[in-house]
Amino acid sequence: RMSLHHHNSSHVIGESASCHSIVSSAASSSATKHSSPPPKKGMMISQEYEALLQSALEDQSHYFEGEISRLRAELASSRMTQNQHISERESREIQALRADSDRLRQEVERLTSS
Fold first, then answer.
1. CA 8, CA 2: separation in Å to the nearest integer?
2. Are 95 and 52 in contact (CB under 8 A)?
3. What is the mean pLDDT of residues 5-30?
4. Is 87 helix (H, G, I), strand (E, B) or coil?
């Protein structure tokens, strides 16, 4: 769905860009013929182009904001998984330290109770 959305936005921008070149060439050719302001139809087309372009850019902005959020969440989840993953060697070291701690605690209790 996301790639389709991106494709559609690109397509709209592509259409908008071609509309812009048509509008630009029409405006420049009419400007060379007349020194008066562009006709209403040209202005309407230009405004429609701007609205289409703005809409396409907003769609792309929302899409990429969603992608960034999704990737940040994925990265955070990945980091949590990596931090929680303890190797077998580390696990054996932890068990050995716990056993040493228990042994020393018992020895301290024995020495202090005597």
1. 10
2. no
3. 47
4. coil
Angle subtended at Cα 80 by Cα 79 and Cα 83, rounded to the nearest 5 degrees: 85
Residues whose CB falls within 8 Å of the CB of residue 64, separated by 6 or more in sequence, listed in order: none
Give 81-108 pLDDT, tens digit per residue: 777 777 788 889 999 999 999 999 999 9
Q: Residue for token digits 């109770």?
A: 113
Does residue 19 contact residue 49 with C-beta atoms inside 8 Å?
yes
Q: Are 49 and 23 in contact (CB under 8 A)?
A: yes
Q: What are the distances in angstroms from CA 83 to CA 7, 90, 92, 109?
A: 37, 12, 17, 35
Q: What is the pLDDT of residue 34?
A: 52
Q: Please report, in angstroms and rounded to a whole number, the separation of the first and last CA atoms in the chain.
A: 75
Structure tokens of 111? Answer: 């020495």
With contact defined as beta carbons under 8 Å apart, do 48 and 59 qualify? no
Q: Which residues does 67 contact at the CB level (< 8 Å), separation at least 6?
A: 2
**Cα separation, 109 vs 7, whole angstroms:** 72
